[in-house]
Amino acid sequence: MIETLIVLVKIVCALVWFLLITLYLTWAERKESALMQDRIGANRANFFGIRIIGLFQPFADAIKMAFKEDFTPSFSRKFLHDLAPFLSFFFTGVTIATIPFGDILKIGGKEIKLQVLDINVGLLFVLAMLSFTIYGVLLSGWASNNRWTLIGGLRGAAQLISYEVALGLSLIGLVMVFPSLDFSAIVDFQGELLFGWLPKWGIFLQPLGFLIFLFATMAESERVPFDLPEGESEIVGFFTEYGGMKWGMYMFTDFMKVLIISCLLTTLFFGGYQVPWLYADGFRFPWGGEWLLPHGIVVLFQVLMFNIKVFFFCWLQILLRWTYPRFRYDQLMDFGWKLLIPLSLINIVATAIIMSIL
Amino acid sequence: MLKQLGYFIEIIRGGIITTRHFSVNMFFHILNLFHIKTKRKGAVTIQYPEVRQKIAERHRSLHRLMKREDGKPRCVVCMLCATVCPSECIFIEAEEDPDPEIQKYPARFIIDISRCCFCGFCVEACPEDALRMDTDEIELADYDRDNLVYNLEKLLK
Fold first, then answer.
1. Contact between B1 and A338 using a beta-carbon 8 Å cutoff
2. Which residues on A lie below 8 Å from B47 (Cβ)?
3. Residue A118: which residues within 8 A CB-CB, separation 6 or more?
4. DSSP B135
5. What is this structure's pTM?
6. What residues make up the domain containing B142?
7. Tens of pLDDT along B48-87?
8. Which chain A residues touch B26 with a CB distance below 8 Å?
């Protein structure tokens, strides 16, 4: 009984965290782009005259989209047209289940792992679910029965499948270094120290793998340097025929992908919830100092650290999105097939050689 | 391949520029949040309805008709403004004035602001300096088209 309750609470907490942060990413993107361009950004939305630097903006947007007409073009394939956004949304949203937010929390003799689903193939699960989102892209392009959306959908599918290869290959080096596909095990490995002082994070062991993973996941998220499937400035986008909340779900999926990519980057390459030199009973610094902390504070530190890292990567992705222009389609394919995939192969070979020497 | 790698340096430089803008602006915004006055602001935005920029000296805004000393309109109904108007939004109806020096005065002088393109040709054409566009009124939007038809009383104000 109590076990079921704990699982339910974990699911609710993870979903609320995920959806709320995603909602505020829309606001953060507008504010950050404004700051980069010397503007102010969305600050007018108010609630009975209270406007806290526009923090109610996402809710205003959501209300506006919910009350818009749910329009389906007469020439579209109705069922698939309705299904496609839900597919994208679901398969992106379900990935949060395997991300560890913190280490084991002990309350009243119970040991609660701050992770919804602790499966031993968590990494494969996330990659598989992210691959499923291609169905949403392809189906929406095809079911709209509009030749431009079909082009957009096919472009999207081609791009996602090409970068999926680089994405998978870039992680093989990481899996070789941390011999596990389980996220919590990978994070545990990263709690150790290298040379006695450097945290054994993925970035220090796999710098090239990190770069390849960053670019490949950014291509997966279909945002600006790689936004050919959407093509906001052209009309060739896979969700051209969507409006209202169904379009909103695609938009939301975009930001969910940004967040899940940040979570993946944090978990795989930046030590997840690990704070440098923090152990289960407190800090133990390499230069000899010690700062013992109670168990609750340690877990709080870990969850906070995880959030800080995730927010940093969200910030970085928004920064990149607002800095760079879009790739041309042949450049995109060149970048994926001719640069990222050879580099990831080199990374695998180099990792294997170094590991066999050491 | 090497040629393509060449733009990576520029890409990194671009990222540095946007990061610099972000961090500098963020710094000044945080200072402003704590009510610390700084010479430089975090953004160049003018928050329009609350803060207004001074309108330039030689701007063109809503028209006004000038008056003589006795309060009558200076207009002599020469019809030059109505003729030159490219959007044909000026309508004037003349009436005989008892004063032989003036001869005519406008019984009706209507400018349809909803059609006016604010080119200022009417002001240039007027030989009596009876029409000017210097009222500083630039917010002329209205919910009703009828309110945008400005007659003699409204223009003389």
1. yes
2. 40
3. A98, A100, A182, A184
4. S
5. 0.86
6. 64-156
7. 888 888 889 889 999 999 998 888 899 999 999 999 999 9
8. 35
